[in-house]
Design goal:
Blueprint lengths: L6 E3 L4 H10 L3 E4 L5 H6 L7 E4 L9 E4 L2 E5 L4 H6 L1 H6 L1 H7 L5 H6 L2 H7 L5 H8 L3 E6 L2 E6 L4 E3 L2 E2 L6 E8 L4 E8 L6 E12 L2 E10 L6 E2 L1 H7 L6 H13 L11 H21 L1
Parallel strand pairs: 1-3, 2-3
Antiparallel strand pairs: 4-5, 5-10, 6-7, 6-10, 8-9, 11-12, 12-13, 13-14
Helix pairs in contact: 5-8, 9-10, 10-11
Length: 282
Amino acid sequence: MKPPPFHYARPDDLGEAVRLLAADEDAKALAGGQSLLPMMNFRLARPSVLVDIARLPELSGLRREDDVLVIGAGVPQRTAETAQLVRETCPLLGLALRHVGHHQIRSRGTVGGSLAHADPAAELGAAAVALDAEVVVTGTSGRRTVPAADLFVAPFQTSLSAEEVLTEVRLPIRDVRCGFAEIGTRSGDFAIAGVAAVLHLADGEVTEARLVGLGIGGTVQRLPKAEAELRGHALEDGVIDAAARAAADATSPPDDLRADPRTRRAALRSAVQRALKQVSNA
């Protein structure tokens, strides 16, 4: 398999990258390339120009700013997965990243690239929404901040304009418990269904719950009925089972070659149970 013809550009800075993207509506930013290049090989994507942003200094770095973990969009997923700072401040991110493809994929794929790709079965998208993250993007009109919940609009589509580059991810650092689980045919495959869970407990009861499912629709999505089953209760087996049933019953997953809706609902129910068990056993 070979991609269709394209031009290649490697800008020296972020400003030049934005100008190159703005100059051609069919141009596409290239970071790790772990999702874009296979799509090009299958002729599912046909960019006229690849603008290589992988080595831009503005997209690097991983740091803490007060109560926010800031990750440059160009940081490799494996780097974020193994970083001590991530484990200490945002453990859900590490839990989610373990499920992204294989070691080789995570070594090349970037944090920002996964979010910008907007795969509805992507682990990082679910984690970002569950953590109430924000992304910073830069375009011809300057910088702006977009809540992760507003980033994903359709399969492989975001709310960013064509010339905007996702430059960093900002994750609030909070005293919460988290869990992540997904069900797939094999380790490293795309998930049939999965969930990222973020809970706050006080006096043994759930006071806040954010559950975000993946692989169950056109985008990653909150599971409000399951969240409601948790709030105000101790995280016991009966409550966990009720939340898992509510999550499965309230979803309308797609029917495709990998799984039918019934299978996806069953997978989501199991994933919610597993993720909440992680939280209760923490």
